[in-house]
Design goal:
The chain is α+β, with helices and mostly antiparallel strands. It has helices spanning 2-9, 25-41, 56-61, 88-98, and strands spanning 15-20, 46-51, 69-74, 77-83.
Amino acid sequence: MKNNFNEIINSETPVLVDFYADWCGPCQIMGPILEEVAADLNGSAKIIKVDVDKNPAVAQSFQVMGIPTLILFKGGEIKWRQSGVVGADQLKQVIRQHA
């Protein structure tokens, strides 16, 4: 996962990573929000989900302490980061700023 993950986040297309777990209530709330954002962005950004229980090394490498944690990457750099539930409008605004 780590090598493939690094390839994905090094893209010049913005990549929003959702660090989550299946058992996490707020993470489940983020699911439909991320689907809405993905539909509205028409491919101008990628959205990927990383299960922290299945990929603890990736989560640790970005100091993910709470979930959900959303991190926006572009060209391998962190452009934005926030933990907790984030609304669709705010996410779209943040992604468009870095598109």
